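Annual report, structural modelling task.

Input specification for the iron/sulfur cluster complex:
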Amino acid sequence: MADFMADHLLHRLYRLQEKHRHIPFQLMVEVARESGLPVSQVAAVVNFYSFFYQQPVGRYHLLFSNCTSCGYQAGEVNLLALLRQQLSIVPGQTRTDGVVSVDETSCIGMCDHGPSMLVNGAPIVNLDEDRIRQLCGLIAAEQSLDRWPADWFRINNHIRKPGLLLNAPLQSGGSLSKALAGDAQRMLESIVQSGLRGRGGAGFATGKKWLFCREAEGDARYVVCNADEGEPGTFKDRVLLQCHADALFEGMTLCAYGIGAKKGFLYLRGEYRYLLGHLQTVLRRRYDSGLLGASILGQAGFSFDIELVVGAGAYICGEESALIESLEGKPGIPRIRPPFPVTHGYLGCPTVVNNVETFIAAAHIVQDGSDGFGAVGTEKSPGSKLLSVSGDCRTPGIYEYPYGASIQQVLDDCGATQVQAVQIGGPAGSLLAKKDFNRRISFEDVSTGGSFLIFGEYRDLLSINRNFARFFAHESCGFCTPCRVGTRLLENSIGKIADGRATWRDVDEIKQLSRIVSRYSHCGLGHTAANHILDSVRHFPGHIQNVLAQQAFTPAFDLDAALETARQLTQRDDADAHLE
Amino acid sequence: MTQLKDTIFIDGKAIGFTEGQTIMDAALSAQVYIPHLCHYPGLTPSGNCRLCVVEADGRMVAACTTAAREGQQVSNNTAELSAARKAITQMLFVEGNHICPSCEKSGNCKLQAMGYYLGMLEEHYPQFNPHRALDASHPDIFLDRGRCILCGLCVRSSHDVDKKNVFAIAGRGADARLIVNTVSGKLGDSNLDVGDLAANICPVGAIMFKEHGYVTPIGERIYDRQKISDVALNEHVLEQKGDKAR
Ligand SMILES: Cc1cc2nc3c(=O)[nH]c(=O)nc-3n(C[C@H](O)[C@H](O)[C@H](O)COP(=O)(O)O)c2cc1C
Ligand code: SF4
Ligand code: SF4
Ligand code: FES
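The model returned the following structure:
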């Protein structure tokens, strides 16, 4: 029984990273030799994923989330600055004694737990000044992680409002035996009938996807669950993987039955590695109960295996074709589409890729019938949606609503008052102002993969834009020009605006640049990377006006900033080391 | 409007195509120029530079990777597309270290020629000034990554045509770099040969021959005499390889 692909390139590299705290070129050469891959492929993979390093990291490697909800600036104090000061360390560099290193990482999906970080890969949540000081003490004493306070590592599910899916737990094997009693075609039809659409963001009709895959030509077919959940502000898949993994695997098995697949993968984001043990336990239980493996539920000829593959820090691997590349042991560079994965997916074979929530919804539909599902939601968006609500509200957590719920209702339910703006669908989604709070969560109005970020009135929206711009520049895969270069330029331009060094010309300029990045890029990351900027310009023009310099032109080159290297070298930051 | 079978329309002009051709293939066969840098006829298209993006039936698509479809309406020569292409070219300039006045490739460089073609008069965006390693370990060929535009033409040529797999692109986002597939990471340890397609296809001055300088004087080079929009209509890897069979 193989539930964990031990020899997957990402896993081999992970083990080396654990052991040596970095992967020097020599080791890449060895891995290449052992696995029969070109050195360049191994090197490209090491270079691509954030969690592989070519210089040694510290024995305590701290990755602070920089998400607006679970990041170091989510509260009032900049906790990274505190950490930096307490540990006498420069982010991105390992302290010379080799004990500790600190860096930033994109959202780690702990947005309902306040400021959070990964310590040697394990999430620590609810950080505040106190905890940071204690943590620095533990590191100074070189206390091993298993002796750190256990409650720092405790992750809650925070299910605040259960609905259609969360209220009705599935019986293990229930929907599967129902499906096996009829033929695969019938089951597929019920998914089509239900009108289920993908929960990962794009909203493609799930039944249709499964049918296409079944009909596509190929020697083998694959089922892939996208548990990459990288969109900042999203954590509902984390909770589903924790509480409803069995239903998820059941959904994947139903899909396998429907399309005729013998093999499936669950691609788990590296940030959720701590869930691996739990997922393996659930998988083993299903194997033991005859719900996976050969002759499932006694049906001769129906076999299906699921393997787990863990990513290594790359938001782009949530894009389905990049995910497949990653599954194949390559950098996560999105493929040319068409052909789509349903016809040319894993190893070129027909592949269904669905979000965690989509598979679980499918299992519900098969168990309870498509009518009940369609009775909830709107005409074009049947069913319910799990929202990951976080930011400035009293009770962040998971809220399940029938499609069609208004933004205001969500805000009321989570105790958000004095709200300035909400960002729905993560940085790639839409930034909405008060006048839009009557709009509805649905594919036809405001669509979301699940991220619902709330920004109170005191927040500086430009710093949010800056945060998002940085996220995209960091996560761009680098394949295509407009996104590779453009996201960097956007980051610089929004910085110039936020710093009060910009004029109206820069605003025109950033609008044009945004248009190029969103229209000319190769994949969805680039297509959506400038949305937040255009939304800000459109809905919050006052914020930008207020900080514009009252002159016709200011140079892009910041003389004072250019002296930063010199300041660092001379370890000075006094007034005389600055220009003004 | 009656739709002709196997015909697409580029800026209103009817162009025939055969099954399996991309918009780029169809355009080039009909001697219609769509700007491109990362595409070279005869190699598998990649779609990374985005110069060739056109509007096809209302959608923005890369002409080099998008199949031609019956009756497709393609806009190629529009003010918006030209402005965007110029901006993308400027991005490629500021991202690397392009030292045109002192570059031996000057006049034969496609990036420069694209700049001329699109009327680019300035770089517009702030320079990135990246630190990118130079590799002079090969006896005949040097690699200046500072001038690389990450088009991947050498990667595909070496893998698909030369069958040597000498190059790859590694690193994410702005850290993307050309790497060499040897146990030292050095070009000198590869079996790259001056006759290889990969050694000859670089559109810019990133892969250059040593001890060859200014054989053709500046002013008499390819793009000093012709526009890229004319030169690009008659390119094919078979000719690059010196194969006259085609
Ligand atoms: C940049 C980018 C990141 C994405 N990240 C995710 C993700 O983390 N999880 C997910 O389910 N879908 C993600 N998607 C969407 C997937 O490409 C794909 O549409 C989805 O997995 C299909 O499943 P669904 O139909 O069940 O939603 C992402 C798309 C893009 C362009
Ligand atoms: S849009 Fe960005 S993430 Fe997508 S292929 Fe281009 S560089 Fe990569
Ligand atoms: S070296 Fe030349 S051919 Fe190779 S990727 Fe760079 S620019 Fe393209
Ligand atoms: S030529 Fe088509 S994207 Fe480069």
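Chain B touches chain A through 41 residues (CB under 8 Å).
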